[in-house]
Specification:
single chain; 122 residues; 4-stranded antiparallel sheet; globular; 7-stranded mixed sheet; mainly beta
Length: 122
């Protein structure tokens, strides 16, 4: 599975941003797709994940109520819509894929896209 991430950039506090992750390869639909982020000097942490069917999602507490993960099955793309962003959300965001669902540790994901930098600053 190959993952291509896009959509990062600079946004002001309180603003919104959408990240996209286009997946390709064998059995993409069988993979859960997740978002992780890594702030400067910190470990990579879980943000959100969506099941292969798109019917089930999990969010980190920091993302609940502000971020929405969704999946377009037809074009094998997962999105992360982020709203009410704060400076604490500044990080490199990664897309990842796994055949297991409901897992939240980076080491449990086999496939990774390149990161995209999200900077929240005024």
């Amino acid at each position: 599975v190959q993952l291509q991430v896009s959509g990062g950039g600079l946004v002001e506090p309180g603003g919104s941003l959408r990240l996209s992750c286009a997946a390709s390869g064998r059995a993409v639909k069988a993979h859960a797709l997740g978002w992780f982020r890594q702030a400067p000097g910190k470990e990579r942490t879980f943000v959100a994940v969506i099941s292969g069917s798109g019917g089930t999602t999990y969010y980190a507490d920091s993302a609940k109520g502000r971020f929405t993960i969704s999946r377009d099955i037809d074009i094998h793309t997962v999105y992360l819509d982020m709203a009410n962003l704060s400076t604490d959300d500044t990080a490199v965001y990664f897309c990842a894929a796994s055949t297991e669902f409901g897992i939240f540790q980076p080491r449990q994901y086999r496939y990774w896209g390149q990161g995209t930098l999200v900077t929240v600053s005024s």
